[in-house]
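dumping the sequnces here before i forget
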Amino acid sequence: MLGSGIINGLIVTAKNFAGSYHDPERMVTVEYPEQKTVLPENYRNFPFLITENATDPMGTLRCVACQICEKECPPQCIIIEKSKDKKPDATGKLQLYPAIFGIDTSVCMSCQICVEVCPFDAIKMDKVFEIATTDRFQDLFLDRERLAKPNSYYHEIHPVEAAEVDGRLLAERKAAEEKAKVAAAAKAAAAAAKPVVTPPPATP
Amino acid sequence: MSDPVTSPTPFPAAGNISDAEREDLRRHGILMTSLEELHNWGRSNSIWPLQFGLACCAIEMIAAATARFDIARFGAEIFRPSPRQADLMIVSGTVTKKMAPQVIRLWNQMPEPKYCIAMGACAISGGPFKQGYNVLKGIDRFIPVDIYIPGCPPRPEALLNGLIQLQKQIKAEQLTGPNAARFTRPEEPSEFPIPAYGAHDLVPTKNDALWAPPTPEAKA
Amino acid sequence: METLEQIRARLLLAYPAAQITFVTNPGPAAEHSLLIEATHAVEIARWLRDDTALHLDYCSNATGVDWPDKTITDVATTTEPDPAGGPAKTVETKTTRLQPGYLEAIYHLYSIALKQGPVVIRLRTANRTDAVTLPSLTPIWRSCDFQEREIFDLYGIIFSGHPDLRRLLMWDEFKDHPMRKDYVEPDDYEWEPTAHGAVLERAKPHQSAAAAPALKTGGTP
Amino acid sequence: MSAAALTDSFLERAPLALRDWVVNFLPAPLQWLGHHLITIIAVLAVFGTFFAFTTIAERKLLARLQNRLGPNRSGLPWIKGLTLFGLSQPFADAIKTLTKEDIVPAAADKCLHFLAPVIVVAFSLMTFAVLPFGRHLIPVELDAALLYFFAAGAATELAIFMAGWSSRNKYSLLAAMRALAQLISYELPLILSVVPIVLVTSTLSTQNIVLAQGGWTFGFLPHWFVFTPWGFPAFIIFLVAALAESNRSPFDLPEAESELIAGHLTEYSGFKYALFFMAEYFGLTALSGLGVTLFLGGWQAPIAALQFIPSYAWFMLKLIGMLVFFIWIRGTLLRLRIDQLTRLAWQFLVPLALLNVGNAAFWILTASWSGPLQLIRWAISLAIIVIPFILLGRTLTAGYAPRTYRYAP
Amino acid sequence: MNPFTPSAPTPFASAPGPTVRAVHDEFHGDLLEVSMGPQHPSTHGVFRMVATLDGEQLVKLKPVFGYLHRNHEKIAENTTYLGSMPYTDRLDYLCSMSTNWAYALAVERLAGQAVPERAQYLRIIMAELTRLVNHSCLVGFLFNDLGTSFTPLLYAFREREKIIDLFESLSGSRMMCNYQRFGGCRVDPTPEWLAAAQQLVDNFPRFLDEYERMLTGNEIMLARTQGVGRLDATHAINAGITGPVLRASGVDYDLRKVDAYGFYAQFDFRVPLGAHGDTYDRYMMRILEMRESVKILQQAFKRLPAGPIMDPKAKLRGFRPKAGEAYGRLEGPKGELGFFLISDGSPNPYRYRVRPPSLINLTLLEEMCLGHTIADAVVILGSIDIVLGEVDR
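..and the predicted 3d for all of it:
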């Protein structure tokens, strides 16, 4: 009969109306500034740089200025300038570091490709999204100082991933140390066997 | 962007007293209000955006209006399709050169006081598509933008955050005095020239009176 | 479905005057194609659509490709017998030639009725400047309508016989064909804080004599 | 306490007493003027506030229908952290719209463009004059109150036409045309749906119509016209026509947002837009008030035992109920097309309303039937309306039915 | 009706819609030209239609494109193969997952790249979830065009948010998932994720039932959509219309069955077909396809094998396919989504072309709308389901 479809519709909306008072399925509003949705572990917004030590962020950047991310970044929003000198990284090896590292967040498309291609686990994705601003030239270009965040912060926002990365880095470091040790031992043995021959330069 | 020079007023009017002072008076039971405050309260709680989506960010703008995020809580769910009734233009998405004249025309059709939010990387700077030949590198080349919300696309919460910032900005606006809001000053333009379609690009490519990126010297 | 060679053979039977070249695709996809001479393109297209064994009633994709002029270095190796009777000598003669550029329109045809395909056909213009006219296949497959307009817009191929050949994406006053490889983008590089590589070259004139990337705020530690 | 004492209690008399008390301060020759002015101011104040809260109620109810919260944090300008559940939202909107720049398009007919919102508000307010808000509360006691109401109500559509025509906007023009088509189509069923009541009560006075609905069977079955076999269909026709007259969803064609931007309002900004907005709600409120008056017993209490609650409170409650129903409809239904809109009016509502007039006549003729005859009277009366309803409904929806689909083999 | 009539259709001879009554000739009335868009509430973005009206009736309708032409193809030709992947998210921004897949499919064909089994299953899961997102949003928008006060749209978005949350917790972004890679997928879902997805899918039919109860039988809805915007099969095929719009006209052509790309051949699902090709059929195709998608998803969750999600030979950086060309296509939620790639052996594609279903499905828009009113035109446009990012690219 004419009208039955309309009445069915009215019943559905009435159900939703009533449900909005008692059924959390039918009242899904999250009152944003007061309540916040828990961002998932994988959430990504803009990249940041990891520093090993929070007290000396610029001195302990993991980034070695290899410029892979600069090249791979699809919208080309990363700029890196290599340092002229080298300084020791966490393992004590001498490495280049970025004299300039800038990301233009007004261009960045949060695609995470920089993170994927980084061989040093130096750049990761941040979760901060409340960054509305009134001046795009000043506030949306992030330089090295504003990009650097300590490893502890990384653990805070991506606990699972950070633990995995740290484990991997530690294993690599250990392997490197083992190798160095073996090399040193071999060198020592060689030196003991043939004291006359000058040892070959140690390979890093 | 246009921060007028702050000159000290010798006799601060009621509207010019600071928040702290007002809080202090409040604690003593004195309600200090003024026409200005009432006006700003009304405007900041009734921001009707223009129903106008350009690209990907428009979906997140719609999402901000849906049940989960509910922009209605701020009194801003009345998306007016006609610019005549809108207070806020959310430029949500890539502004192409073909679209730019229309966007500026819409802005010109909006009555004062009006505000503009550039939502997402594309609206701010052209974003990932800035290398494209038909993409305008930022809507602020032609119209003044109050709030920039970076992200690609920004979460609906980020849009709400931008809206809250805009509300704060409106609440801090003054109607008179040297720091008066833009829309009260007759010398500030309300309409902006609309570029023409040229043979290779828009003519002109930017509004020089409005858009001045910092030069490296100025920065250093 | 018949192989492309069989189709070509049948086409040549039907249109003996037409020039139909088999274009091999060296990649793993091995989607070979038929290069069809422009003068017979419409008839051949109609034949492909109406042929009962093929019934290619659906043109999925029509696209333009720009092949600019290219200097090709041919290396010809010839073995010359040593007149002295020694081992034959291999001589490499390098000849450079200018391969004239052309614009190409590629159509991917399928059959919805027989659920088969694709058959890829190509049409080529004579050059990239003045002889850029190709016959439109829109009267055969309506789906080419917007796609051919797009090719006209972005590549500048003029499709004769198209019912409504206007620019599709760019505005009407626009002069260039932006998808061509030699297109120069308009200069709007005033603010490029992360310029490097090609972008830096374009941005340099806008930056001051210092030409240093902006925002060198971070000092060396 | 006797019934008379109940219906004439202090609360019932309070508004009148207050008015008389104020009027007495005036010199005698001016008292009639004061009398009317106070009435007008009271109506404006009450329904102005009512309008404000209708808008927030609509926004909140729609929000709840859509599983969200709706405006809830406007608060007050001078107290931080106070939200008042967003009840101050309409006042914020009012302040904003009042201070907004007013744009008149260069090409517009300036005079008509200005007049349209004024007229639309004026006429929609005039309709309140004849609504009996309570036992003793009626601004003007007119004998031809119903005629007056419809005359004033129809004028608002003309104002919409003025707005659409004067804006010189193509969308506005289309909206204006639609508004006229809608006006002509729905004025007829609206009036025809009221005719049975005039027939039964033989009066055009709204107050008398309400009085005619007084009384209860067994003390709890009110003698409202909606509970009669001719009154209920008339009420439904009235509801549909009222929705169309006030341009509400599903008949919001003149300002069809998804088709015509904002229809006749496209070129209106600031205060003038607010006036239209206000007029829309005034019109809706007035039509709902008329519906309450004609079909839902006006200010009469639903149960005899509840008579101690003053009559104007009952009127307001019923009015709110009607408005909530309209909001509910708006939250659910989709828009008709213009040809379907006119078809619904001319091929369905008008014939049905005409039949219903006959139905009412039958009801009057058989007023003396009682006992088992009463049942027959009900059955015949119901048949007169239900059978045509089904038949007309079938022709109206001929060719439209849900379908079943096949799947690919 | 046999859609495959042997005689060739003449595309411009007759419009498939009802013939336009020449009322204006009789009354010498003026025609009104209305430009709808690029800012219009129901053009779904910055699409523009220049409509010529006779009263309310359309006598001419010219679509105007390009307001969102953001040079995707040109940018992709200057970027590496991997670098274009996040751009494909922004093509059809409602269904980034399936657009990702279409691009990955084309590149995998171009490079001869194998994909492990688990990744294939994950791709199907993502593509079908995307279909649910797209179709539920579409019907929401369609009802918005039909004049509801956002209620169905908000119900649809309520469900969309649930799926979007899944995407976000897996890929990190709500809309721009950037999830597929050449040779597999980027992230392996955890068992908790799969359980949550399974639960969502199990509950989805309940939403559909409620939605249908609310609107499918509604008399106004029936009157507004049935018989509106008819499209017959012959014209539809000739105009290259694909996806649910084509199937609503009764043509059995679903690439999941025809090409059986991915592992679709192993799944049991049906392809719904319409009979009238009108707006109502197009709406119902979406509803029925969602029900079939739920079936596919349930099978996929049941059978999801363990194993790697990336082919070990796949390269992330320095990806250079051999010279050649490939056309990869799949059944996107909006129709046949194809990518045509020409490689010259360099890290960037020489030619990168998107075959946009949204654009080509608009080919017959004018013919479908003629003779109907302006109110129907927006509904017809809504039922075609376009996304401007894909139309203009």
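Confidence is low (pLDDT under 50) at residues 209-221 of chain C.
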